[in-house]
Design a protein that fits this description.
8 strands, about 40% helix, alpha/beta, globular, eight-stranded parallel sheet
Length: about 350
């Protein structure tokens, strides 16, 4: 346990400290948060590339009393600095992506426009760069025996982290909280689209033995066929079906226990904020009616821990940036609970 002599957890957060106002260095911390300011391939609302800085600011309003009683924060949480060069690269490629998306939305053909062909090539190369950057950053943190929590950015960002975790842990499963399947193949000609993260993870990480999706309520025929033909490697709990079971009297506890039975011993949580009810994330990039309360998800995560399974890392992505700090306020509190549950 870190030496907290002189630190008052009941006082106003010191903005000169790190995230949540905690006084830890990276070396002292058990959980290291990797901010990834990237939103190149988002296909609707933008803004999530700057979510990490807003969440950091909002985290100063989070009270440090651990609601689940294990005071995990005393083992240290630390957020690394936001990489400004990566953010600038995202901004530049996002402009190109916006032009391209507008071009194809009008029914134009890609091969008839050399400039657009060049843009797609640059965007895909940029996404490769991003994946390698996240992998190298994550691997370096994991080698120090720390837990990595990735703070996005769009949902394309955690592929490199999952690859690093596969090298460290071997076989593992992913619990995906999301309004979308993210199983599209090369969406909008972007190989590493935010809408393709789980397809790419399943395709490129053989150690990913099981994907359990919870809350999906917007998906295409291609994704449905992928799930049906996955030989149960992908298990999807659609929001509609969950709600109908609840309406008919089943307990969330019962559904939660069933979900957990599909997960292997080691579990990675991929939390797209749009899996929640939109009132909690009004400015998320691709909102869909429906979704969960935050406590329903925290309950699920707690029950995974209680089952004896090991939580090996997480991402929290697609947090929006609006006129108020509500999105980042909710995001900061979910991040707080996730970090505590990890340890």
């Amino acid at each position: 346990m870190n030496d907290l002599t002189g630190f008052n957890p009941n006082a106003v957060a010191n903005p000169n400290n790190n995230i949540f106002g905690l006084p830890f260095t990276e070396e002292e911390s058990k959980v290291v948060i990797l901010p990834v300011p990237w939103e190149v391939t988002v296909s609707y609302g933008a803004g999530t590339a700057r979510a990490a800085e807003h969440v950091f600011k909002s985290s100063m309003q989070v009270d440090l009393m651990d609601m689940d009683g294990n005071a995990g924060w005393k083992q240290g949480f630390f957020m690394k600095e936001i990489d400004k060069k990566l953010l600038l690269k995202s901004d530049y490629l996002r402009k190109e992506a916006e032009l391209y998306i507008d071009y194809i939305s009008q029914g134009a053909e890609l091969l008839k426009n050399k400039f657009m062909c060049k843009s797609v090539k640059e965007i895909n190369e940029g996404s490769n760069y991003l994946n390698n950057w996240v992998y190298e950053q994550s691997k370096a943190i994991l080698e120090k025996q720390k837990i990595v929590g990735l703070l996005g950015g769009d949902h394309s960002t955690p592929l490199g982290l999952m690859k690093a975790l596969a090298e460290k842990h071997g076989a593992f499963g992913v619990l995906q909280i999301d309004a979308h399947c993210d199983l599209r193949i090369k969406y909008e000609d972007f190989t590493y689209s935010h809408a393709s993260i789980m397809y790419n993870a399943l395709n490129e990480i053989p150690e990913l033995v099981k994907l359990v999706q919870v809350g999906v309520r917007d998906y295409c025929e291609q994704e449905w066929e992928y799930i049906c033909n996955s030989n149960f490697r992908v298990i999807t709990y659609f929001d509609k079906n969950i709600k109908e079971r609840l309406f008919e009297g089943q307990l969330w506890k019962t559904i939660t226990e069933e979900i957990i039975q599909h997960l292997p011993e080691k579990v990675y949580i991929s939390f797209d904020i749009d899996g929640l009810d939109r009132k909690l994330c009004p400015n998320t990039g691709t909102p869909v009616p429906g979704g969960f309360e935050s406590e329903e998800m925290i309950y699920l995560f707690k029950k995974i821990k209680e089952s004896g399974r090991e939580l090996i890392g997480f991402d929290l992505v697609e947090i929006g940036v609006g006129e108020t700090d509500w999105d980042s306020n909710v995001g900061a509190r979910i991040l707080w609970r996730l970090c505590n549950l990890m340890v």
